[in-house]
Batch of 4 targets.
Target 1
Amino acid sequence: MNCAHAQGHSPLAARAPRYARRGSLLVATVLGMTILLLVVATMVISGGREAELTQLRFQEARAGYAADAGANMALREIKRNSDVDGDGAIGTISNDSNANTDPTVGVGGARVRVTPTGSNVYTVTSRTGTPSRSYTLTATPSGAAHSDGFEGYTTGQSLQNVGGWWGWDNDSNAAGTVEGGAARTGVKSQRIDSTTDSVRLYTQTSGQWVYTAWQFIPTNVTGSETYFILLNTYSAGGAKSWSTQIRFQFNNNTVYDNMQGGVTGSTRTLVRNQWVPITVLINLDAGTQTVSYNNQVLFTGSWNRQGGARRLQAVDLYGSSSKGVLYDDISLTAVGGGGGGSTVTMVETP
C-alpha cells in the first residue's frame, strides 16, 4: 500500500493549497480592479465637475461681456439721438418684450436687452445658459440741471408734487398726468389736456442754458390751441413774470411766440403726429433768448421782455382748450454740456 494512502493524503488533498492560492490571487485581483475603477471614476467625476465649472466660468464671462456690449449699444443710441436697433425708442435695446429678438453678442450665444426704468436710467440684462447678469445703467447728459423722460412714474399718475412738477399755483387739478404707451423714448410721456397747467420749477440765475422739450400733437387733437411757456419769476399764489410764450394754433396750423399779444418773430407750420423739438437757448448773463420750433428759429429777443429777473424759475405746459397733447424728454442743460459727453454709471444688480 502506498504510504501516502496509508497516511490519508489523497492527490486531491495534496493539490488543495494551490487552489487556495489561486482564490486569494483572484480576490486580490478583483479588489485591485475595484480600487482602480473607483480611482478612475473619481477622476472622471472630478474632471466632469471641473469641466462643468469651467463651462460656467466661460458663460459668466460671456454674460458679462454681453452686458457691457448692451450698455455700449444703448449709450451709442443716446449719443447719436437715434434708434439704432429699431425697437421704437432711443437708449433701449430690444425693448419689445420678445426674448427671441434680443441681440446675440459674440461666440456662445449670449443675449442682451436694455429696458428703461426711470429718467436716464436703464436696466441692462444679459444671459447665456444658466448664468445671467443685470446692471443698472445711468446715463445723465453732462451739464444737465434737469432731465425727465417720465419713465420712472406710474401710468395715469398725477404729477402733483412729483419729480418737481406741480399744478399751477399748486392746484392738483391742474397737474399733468403720465401717459403710457406713447413716448419719444421709452414708453411714457406727460399728457396735457384743457384742464392742465403743469409747472416745473428751476433755480438758474446765471450762465447759458438750452431748454428742450419734445412735443407731440396728434392729428385728431381737439380744441383750438395749447401753449409752451417759460417764466423768469414764479411763486405759487404770488408774483409771476413771463419770458417765453409759444402759441400752437390748431385751426390754421401755426406756431409763433405771442407773449406780447401778436406774432413775435416768425410763424412756423405746426407739425402733427410727430415728435417735434422746442428749443430755447437762454443766456442769463446777457439777458437774451433764441427760440426754435422743429429746428427752425421763431425769434431772438430779450429774456426779460416784460420785466422780472435774469433767471429761470419755471416751465409751464398750458393746455388751454387742447386735449391729448404730449411732452417727453424735457431737459435743461448747460451750454457746452460740461465736456459734451454723458456721466455714466453702471452698477450690478444683486
Note: Residues 197 and 318 are 4 Å apart (CA to CA).
Target 2
Amino acid sequence: MWGAIGLVIVIVVVIVVVSQTSSKTTKGVHYTPKPVSATVLHDLTSVPTSTYNTVGTGIAGAIDAPTVESAQKTLMIDGKPAVFGLFGEFCPYCAAERWAIITSLARFGTFTGLKTMQSSPVDVFPRTQTFTFNTAKYTSPYITARLLELYGQDNATGVHSVINTPTKQEVDLIKKFDSGSSSTSSGTIPFSDWGNKVVFSGASYSPDPLQTLSRTTIAAGLKDPSNAVTKLIIGASNYMSAAVCYIDGGKPGSVCSSSGVQAAAKALKIKV
C-alpha cells in the first residue's frame, strides 16, 4: 500500500482508543472548511465516461488494487448494499483517497454538504487539498454509504482528536477487514469496506503528485485522461466503481458495463 495512518483499536462497548504521535507545537494549523464551489463540485462529480474508459486501471505500479474478500455476507445498511469508510481530516493519505471515493460514488448517487479540507501542515505531504465527509450526505437508489471522519484536524500542538464514534457494527468491520500495515497496528486509515466484498486498507496511491496543486486545478484536470494525477484518481475510482457494481447487482448498467469498470473488474477477477 502507498501509505496509511496506523491505528491500535481497543473496543469498550463502541469506544475506539487510538495511539497518536504528537508533532511539535505549530501555530496556524487549523483550516476552516468551506462549501465546495459549484465549479469544483461539477468537475468532481461529472467526470466524463470517456475519461474513465481511457484511464482504465491507471498507471501500472502506481495504484494498489484492493483486496477481494470471499464467502462474506454482503454488508447491508438501510436495506441496501453498503460502503463503510473510515478517515481523518488531518490525514494526507485520506486526503488523496477521498478524490477517488467521491468521483466513484458520484456515478451511483448524489453528494450534498461536501466541504473543503486540507491535510495537516505538520504531517507528511502537508496541506494536500481535499474534502471532508463530516458534514456530507450521500443518497443513492443503489447503495448506502457511511463515510466516517473518525479524526478531526491537528490542533496547535499537532494532536488530532476523535470527532465521531463508530457504531459497534462498524467497529466489528474494522476489526475484521482492516488488515493494517504493520504488526504493531490492528488497522489503518484510510479504510473502506465495499459491501464486505472489496476492501481498501490504506491509500490507493501516493498523495505526493497532489502536492502544491490547488483543489480547482486537480478537479479541472479530471476531464483529461492524459493528466498524471487524473490517472491516479480515476484509476482508483474505476476499482471502486467495480466494487459497487459487484455488490449492487450491476446497476446502473451504463456505469457497470463501461470499459473502464470492466477493466477494473477483470483485474480484480470479479464479474460485474
Note: Residues 75 and 195 are 4 Å apart (CA to CA).
Target 3
Amino acid sequence: MSPEELQAAPKRVVGMKETKKALEHDRAVRVYIACDAEEAVVRPVIELSEDKSVPVVYVDSMAQLGRVCGIAVGAAAAAIAD
C-alpha cells in the first residue's frame, strides 16, 4: 500500500476533519497518516480507524501527503473513500 494508490484513487478525502467524517460514516477504505504530524492531532483518527478495522498507512511527511493529494500545503491525514 503506497501513497501512489491514494493519488490514483477516484475518491479521496484530505484533512483531519474530512478523514474523521469519512470514518464515522463508514466511507473510508484506507487511511493515510503523516509520520511527522503531531500525535495528539492524529490519534483520534488512528483510534477510529482501528475501531472500524480500516487499514492505516503511514507516509513520511505531511508535505509528501499533501503533494500526493494535489494540494499546495501539508496534510496530516487523508483517506481513500468508497
Note: Residues 31 and 56 are 5 Å apart (CA to CA).
Target 4
Amino acid sequence: MERLVRSCYKQGGYVFAKKAEEIGREYGVARIARLASNENPDPPSALAVTAAKKALLASNRYPDERGDVLTQALRTCYGNYSFVIGAGMDGIIETLIRTLVEPGEAVAIATPTFSFYGLAAMAQAAHVTTVPRHVKDFSIDTKRLIHAGKTAKITVLCSPNNPTGNATPADDVGEVLEGIEGVLFLDNAYVEFSDYDYLPLMKTYDNLVIGRTFSKVHSLAGLRIGYAFAPAWLVPYYERARTPFAVNSVSAAAAAAALLDPDHPERYIAQVKRWGKRFADEVKYPILPSDANFVMVDVSPHTGDQMVEHLARRGVIVRSCRSFGGLPDHYIRVSIGEDWENELFVQAINSI
C-alpha cells in the first residue's frame, strides 16, 4: 500500500534534533544542555500557568473557533491591528499557503532558512522558488527576491533569519513589498530579541503578513500557538481555510495571559543579549552576528554533524545546519539557554 503515498513524502521531511534522553542513554551523561531548538529555558509566566489550569477545567468543550479572547488580548497589547491565530508559527504558514496558493502556483523563499516553508508549500503542490542570500553576510538579494516575487503568490522572508540569525532592515523589506505582486510573509519569530520594528509597514502595505509566536520569549513552545498581523481583507478568507478548532482553549488562555506579564520575556531577552556577547568573546570558533536567541557558529574544519557528535559526547545538544539548504556544511546553530548550559557549551566547544 506504500504506493499510495505521495512522491514528495517518500523521503525528506523536517529534521529534528536528538532528544536529551537519547543523548543521555547513548553517552552516559546525566545532565544535558539542551541548546538545539531555540527554546526559552525558563518555565512559563505564573499568569499563563494559572490561566491554562483554569481553561483545562473547561476542556470538555470545544475552544472558541475564532480565538476572540486571544485576539482581543493581542489588540490590547499591540494596538488596533487585524490578527489571525494558528497552532504555532507552522499553523500560520500552512493556513496562509492553503488560503492563497493553488496547486502549481509559485512560492518564493529567501534561503537558507527554516525548512518548513518549503515543506508546507510542497504539501499544497506549489512550485517552490528559492532565492539564495548573499554568501558573505547572508543578507537578502533584494533584486532577485523581487524578481521571483513578481510571479509568486507568496514570498517568504524570515527576519531575524533562522539559522543565520541576521535581520533584514525595514527599508529592504519595504522595497520588496513595493516590488512584488503577491503577499509577503515576514516571519518574525525572533523579532523580540532584535532592535527591529516592522509593524509600521502594516500601515502602508496591504500585502504584508507578519507572523509571530509564543514559543520563544513567552516560554509556550509546548502549547504550540502562533499569531500574525494580517491585512483586514485577508482575515475572512484565512478563517475559512483554517483547520476548525486548531488552537486549543488551554493554549489560547495561556497566551492571552502571557501578554499581561511583560517582565517574563524581558528577563530572557536580557539573558540572550548578555550571553550572545559572551559567546562572541569566549568561543574560539567564528560566530556570526545574531539578532535572535541563538547564534550560528562556523566550526570548520569540522562538519556540522561532526561537531554535533563531539558536543553530544560532552553533554551538549546543538543543531547541525546541514539540513538548511544553501549553507556550506560547516555550521552549527546554538540556542542561548540557562547559565550552566551556556557555560558547558563554551567549555565543551573550546576543548574540541
Note: The CA atoms of residues 93 and 117 lie 7 Å apart.
